[in-house]
Protein 1
Amino acid sequence: MAISVWEQSTYFAQKDLVIVGCGFVGLWTAYEAIQKNPKLNITILERGVIPSGASTRNAGFSCFGSVSELMYDVQLMGEEAMLETVKMRYDGLQRIQDVFKAKEIDYNQWGGYELFEGAKKEAYDISKLDDHITYLNKILAPVLKTPKKNGKYLPIYTNASKEINKLGFQGIEALAYNKLEGQLNSAKLVLALQKAVQGKGVQILFSTEVKKFKSHAKGVTITTNLDAPIETKQMLVCTNGFAKLLIPTLDVVPARGQVFVTEPIPNLKFKGCYHFDEGYYYFRNLGNRLLLGGARNADFKNEKTYSLDTSKTIQQVLEEFMMQRILPKGSKKPKIELRWSGTMGMGKIKKPIIEKVQPNVYCAVRMSGMGVAIAPIVAQKAINLMKLK
Ligand SMILES: Cc1cc2nc3c(=O)[nH]c(=O)nc-3n(C[C@H](O)[C@H](O)[C@H](O)COP(=O)(O)OP(=O)(O)OC[C@H]3O[C@@H](n4cnc5c(N)ncnc54)[C@H](O)[C@@H]3O)c2cc1C
């Protein structure tokens, strides 16, 4: 199909910025850029009919790191890099709440817990839990600027082990609580962002896959499955787990995350977000249903995939975890109503990659499984890097 003169002067006219990927990072970048300069001509290109990565397929936790996860991150990348990443997540969560009303995105701040089986069964030594809580509260509060009372920071994490029986868990010996965690409906957040940016003139082209691009002195020529190339002054790749397909030099590997949701469970005993095994397992209530996901570490090799199927191996591990740890002993096994997966972007460390790749070509990728929280700040950093005015 040859394009018309009208299409040439609109859809295919040169843009100020083309964003590849309509997930949280792409959308927040468009949102923040248009706040800065409403005259910018921005197009988002998305290969799916709806966003098809992780942003509408995750667990909807508004979290910034559990105790064991952050202690592991200190070992992996050092205290400074851990603090920097956690600050980006925490500030991102504040930005979401500044921009959108809780009702619009089903936001509830019911807090988050981390569950521990006990020293013998896992890598984390629970005898160190109280020391770790004290250490993290001390270093995080002044950096994150969390709420204060009488001039003193309130603790972020507390030891909540005495609540285990009330919550009905099995085989759990310790519990850490973080009252600053919340949960939301991630697809409602995507749609709210879409509505906000489209209302300001941002064009979103769905079913448009970027096949290749060529950087030149005046900008970038982008080849897609459409009938004419798209010209832009600058391009930002926000394809997270799929980033290597367009920019092979990046340290990003796809990591599939699998999830399921049960039928309603009468007398579900808990509310809020729950983490286990350094964040590899996560669950929350969705009304009185259970949403459970993770267990990627039960089959690392096969979960390093772009496939959006679910696997029997992981789904079975999740079902066992539900019956042996989450639901009270003797519970009837609930029916699983929905199973799905999404693609995360991981790498050697958990810091996002926000960098210039070629003249006029930039990327903001590798959200390391925390993109709900971190995306607004990644977007702001990408905009500064591109010197968008
Ligand atoms: C099961 C699961 C649970 C999770 N739980 C949480 C959680 O509770 N809290 C949290 O903070 N984070 C969570 N995450 C991670 C979070 O969802 C991601 O970090 C975040 O959505 C990444 O956003 P993004 O915009 O970088 O990428 P994506 O949302 O993956 O968006 C990238 C987009 O690029 C598109 N694309 C790819 N290639 C092309 C191309 N060539 N041309 C055009 N378009 C292209 C894709 O279709 C996709 O829509 C979870 C992820 C999964 C999978």
Protein 2
Amino acid sequence: MEYDQYKRKTCRYCDEPLGEPFLELGVQPLANNLPRREDAAKPEFHCPLAVVKCRKCHLVQLTHSVPAHLMFDDYLYVSSTTQTFRTHFAEYAKDVRGRLSQKQTPLAVDIGSNDGLLVSCYDKAGMRGIGVEPAKNLAAEANRQGVTTLNRYFGAEAVKEILAQYGKADAVSANNVFAHIDDIQGVCRNVRDLLAEDGFLVIEFAYLATMIEKMFFDMVYHEHVCYIGVTALDFFFTKFGMEIFDITEVDTHGGSLRVFIQKIGGGRERKPVVARFLNDEREKGMLGDKVYADFAARVLGFKTKLNGMVAAIKKEGKSISGYGAPAKATTIINFCELTPAQIDYIVDDNPLKQGRLVPGRKIPIVPSAHLAAHPTAYVIIFAWNFSKEILTKIGFLREKNVRFIVPLPEPATV
Ligand SMILES: [Zn+2]
């Protein structure tokens, strides 16, 4: 079969052979590879997008792995584009600094540092920040801004380079990255080599339980290979001689966890919150199968409902646009098979995305000024996790009778 070469045979955490997926979202294009308008006719890479749970360690993960170089070499996502992220990472850096109060100027390494926002916050919080970022354009931009960034994949070579130049790291951070890397066992070994004996790893990721409960199925896309719960994570780190010692809840992507991990014997006490998460997941049935089957049924129900709303609006002869072209928009638009005949355009504030097309369905992406100049009757807010910011910004369009649809957790007009 065409896609067999990308099929993942074993669990990314524990090497157990994988079974059948519980959720299938169709054969989808790469969510962040936005074709340029002039390339509209060129074929795009596609691959099945489906999710399976490991029966041994319970890690929820994609059935297929797309080669990293196809996804990450020219990455359009720039984290600094929203105030929410800037505030978030400033607080994050202070949290990390506060846990290293005994150190003078601790070394903090951020893996997948993007445009260097968190690394710059480490510097400001009184640490020595180093970023590691494989996307050439982002690493170059970070360095231009004075943020020390190695343009590399995080591997043995990168670790060697950091150890030689700066020594062992007191903190290593990996935000969302941890869910994005196929060979996570390799990453974990490298993190262990890089970390000081009393150092810690901090990872932040969208929490599996929230995804299930709040129906955030649009966080499923090819770059996002793992959907992490504490049970699977605990199993994973134990295998590498490490342990989770603290967990805090954060709200970036509508329900994320920040998890702190040390080498066993790292000197910090394991806080009771860790056992609480493990118990909660067991009680919620996240180690079984029913929760996931129910989730998949609700996802199919979502498609029926959104398509019904769109069809009804079009039947009245009214126009629809979208707000925000994040990866999650690609998932919803391709899963629901929305077309440029239904959605006239999508606005996005990221200038790198403007003039491009939504992968697969080829809906044009334009600057937000376009919406003010050519308002549609309805606007679907695909970047729903920023809907508060967005509604503040474009709420004035209500005077022109524009109505807004927030797609998740259930399509609703607001
Ligand atoms: Zn497993």
